[in-house]
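Methods — Computational structure assignment.
A single polypeptide chain was analysed. Its primary sequence is given first, followed by the predicted tertiary structure written as structure tokens.
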Amino acid sequence: MFSELTGQSATVFVTRSEENYSGAQASSQSVSRSNPPPLSITRNFLWTLAGNLIAAGCQWGIIVMLAKLASTTLVGEFALASAIAVPIAFVSDFRLRVLFVTDAVGKYPLREMLGLRFLLAGISTISILGVCEIAHYKTSTAIVVFIVGIAQMIDSISDNFYGKFQREERMDRIAKSIVARHALSATFFTAALYTTGKLLPAVCGMVLGRGLVLLSYDARIGPIEPNMSSQEIGRFIRKSTYLSCLRPRWNFRRQLQMLWMALPLAITAVLVSVNGYIPRYVLARFLGHRELGIYAAISYIQSGCYMVTVALGYAVFARLSKLFAKGDLAGFKLLVMKTASIYGALGVAGFGLSAIAGRQVLTIVYRPEYAEHVELLRWLMIAGIVQCLSTAMQAGLTAACQFRIQVPLFAGVTAVSLIACIVLVPRLGLTGAAVAVLISSGIQLCASTSLVLRMMFKRARELQAKDSSQLQPALEVPVSP
């Protein structure tokens, strides 16, 4: 699955406070309709949910078309290309979006961050080519891996502008871009696959769809500032060209600071991505591309539930950061628990559906040979419940700027996942991969929950000490001479 996970940052971003929001509403008459005030959490969640669900449907549609129009082996080849290219392409992302979203004082300008993304994209490109050379992939496979990586790097450039939209709490703009990007990618992918029957033209179509949305939407409205009038926005769009909208700025000293601040986030993101793809690596090694194709196709059903959790995570992230920064630990805890409850309910619903109609779903959506592995679907949905709960805890850690602690956390989880897959896949086959996912997810949930509780206790002590230091001068009784 092409990962669109929430990121993290190193400074807390406090969005427009509730006290000032009424004043913002009073002055909103002077703001262009193109730049209305921030949306509520509910509306941001609904927009993000709709966008991510449509995106997940489009991604799933690509796998469905591969399963119906091509062989299981070709599905496995595409899954392997994604498993190789996506984690490496995270280098170009470096979780800079969250660094921008949580930048309260404007230390990191948008165009300087764009320049850094271009540099990182170059490093990612070289790395993908190097991995293909070291692994001795045949030329056709290496080209597919490279093009899938290019698609991810285009997403990274779009993500630079998503950071601005998210900081303004306008998730509707991100949702519109995501829908257009994935719909066009899936359409071009399917058309090329149906016409040629080959994977290479199909993935080229996917790149074309993403590039069109980047140039025509993200880069065009991304630089627009909230205080621009309608006339200023019109002049900006008329005068700007596609290349000028993507023109970066350079400040190497500050860009090195961005790299250092975002380094723990990038390492965590890569570990999360690698952890998600470990079953694919091991399946390709022990069982081959056909079994990998079956596993990848069935695991996409589980990803639908996960995309909902990502949507809610994007919607509540800024609010969680604000609550933690203000010291409202009760509100912070309540929002984390509500998020976890919704995540858990979604996971349980997904498992119930798989238990009742899993075989029928696999037969209709794919082909009868996939329905023979209905037990794999059920195990994956059980693991999905635990993953959803873990995601809620991770959102809490991220919002509280607990970045560096996540590096050893996910390093340990990734190591457990790898060991479990190596032990279980040769013995249990595809089911062994799902059980390994469940084991690693359970460890992640326990560790993340304990870290959230520890972080809240630490923050409570800090607030108590701060209040005591402020009250102490007032409590002192002056001694008369």
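Note: The chain has two domains: 37-250, 288-464.
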